[in-house]
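Late entry, evening session. Most of the bench is empty. Finally got around to the prediction I had been postponing all week. Sequence below, unchanged from the version circulated by S.P.
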Amino acid sequence: PGLTSRITGTIEFPDYSAEEIAQIVNLRLQPKYSFDVGEVSRIVTQTYNQIPVGNTSLRANGRWAERFVESVERLFKKYVLANQIDLSEGKIIPTDIFHTAARGSL
């Protein structure tokens, strides 16, 4: 009785590649913000590649990308408040914020 008795095999979901993670991050942020997509892709790819393959708590199928996006948004809000940025020209995230989020994600 139970699901394991009905399904005899296991299904493995491979981790996203670093490039796919970068795409997820960019796609999540682009509708709301402006930023250097190429540089952010490089930062995300480099950072994600530093995570050991067996580290499932960090490489959990897209969760890392979601946490990274949340960190960037939180840091950007702090940046806007601290520097009294006028957002009427658009929400432009400086590359430094992505570097800070990357350092905090490992």
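Two things to note before I forget:
Helices lie at 3-6, 18-29, 37-49, 63-83, 95-104.
The chain has a mean pLDDT of 90.
Will write this up properly tomorrow.
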